[in-house]
Specification:
Length: 118
């Protein structure tokens, strides 16, 4: 009888040890799963941050280019305005010179007419 009890006790202990080992294994597996999940979340977060940084850099670049374009356009407009002003000044000077010449011609003609009368 004692032998059967020992056998039953031994079997119960083995069952318990097996149960504990399975429990331990399940715990370890759960911990590994959790670690894997965390690593994946970290990676996803890192990729999202990288993507955001890339997008921000692209926006900065686009802004810089737009500012350069605007500055270039402004400079071209200024140059065109200056050229137009120079053209206008030249035209006015030529007009003045033509008027002066015409006045001189007229004065000369009148002087000749006066001289012819006498």
């Amino acid at each position: 009888e004692s032998n059967a009890e020992d056998e039953a006790k031994k079997q119960a202990e083995e069952e318990e040890a097996k149960r504990l080992a399975e429990e331990e294994e399940a715990k370890q597996k759960a911990a590994e799963e959790e670690a894997k999940k965390l690593a994946e979340e970290e990676e996803a977060k890192r990729l999202a941050e990288e993507e955001e940084a890339k997008q921000k850099a692209a926006e900065e670049e686009a802004k810089k280019l737009a500012e350069e374009e605007a500055a270039k356009k402004l400079a071209e407009e200024e140059a065109a305005k200056k050229l137009a002003e120079e053209e206008e000044a030249k035209r006015l000077a030529e007009e003045e010179a033509a008027k002066k010449l015409a006045a001189e011609e007229e004065a000369k003609k009148q002087a000749e007419e006066e001289a012819a009368k006498e």
